[in-house]
């Protein structure tokens, strides 16, 4: 069986390197890339010399031997690219957020149904985080009974001088909930095991960055399914003293136990990443998840070949973005109404 051939279009976020490596680990072959920015292209070519740079993306889109396009283009441009990719008969893996408006989401959904192509969004805080994958295995096995609540925390380090101009443009990056909290929306749906979910309340604000008024540096919201409630908080306030970009946490409450994930650091505790703490009727335990397999890339490659949905259901992928976008809209409407009063 020949290796799946894929290409990259749009290198505007460093998440592109994770997206490419996911597929390389699955045995796929990176054959080409397109970027209009010479500086981004030079770095990418240095990391992946096997891929040739093409001046016109149509050379990639019209190459029938390429099955998958991966993209971390500017957030507001990802939906239109996905539509173009699908209409050329290819599947697409986007960085999150896959779209920045509900209208974009509706159009991508429509074209996906029309073309029957795969639109996957790499929600890396789940699919590329071993502790989250392990938590999924434990919950599925009934380790904490029936899930009734999740709390997802996504603090990030701003690194303002390193960010491109579009990063501070609300229309281009989509707002903090759309951008960051799509991760937490996906995890909420996954652990709630439901696609029937709604946003209850939401807020966003710029608390400490008046020089970049388009940046939202804080957001939170509440959501629920018929059986599970959730709370999400995201921000750009990781302290400089933390040894990694963010202290990402996930708390899962079940009827018979709890799980806490300290994904990227155990602050002032054990070294390394992917710490899982399980508490149940038998006691407490710390589980090192560093050896857990990350199956997303392998599963996506199989889905492309077999036209299945084992890496992530298509409805699930879109519903996570729908929740984030609706929370973003509600948060901004709430902020506007508060100012007007």
From TrEMBL:
GO terms for molecular function: nucleotide binding; oxidoreductase activity. Keywords: Oxidoreductase. Residues 134-260 form the GFO/IDH/MocA-like oxidoreductase domain. It holds the Pfam family GFO_IDH_MocA. Residues 24-121 form the Gfo/Idh/MocA-like oxidoreductase N-terminal domain. InterPro entries: Gfo/Idh/MocA-like_OxRdtase_N, Gfo/Idh/MocA_oxidrdct_glycsds, GFO_IDH_MocA-like_dom, NAD(P)-bd_dom_sf. PANTHER family: BCDNA.GH03377 (PTHR43818). This is Gfo/Idh/MocA family oxidoreductase. It comes from Rhizobium jaguaris.
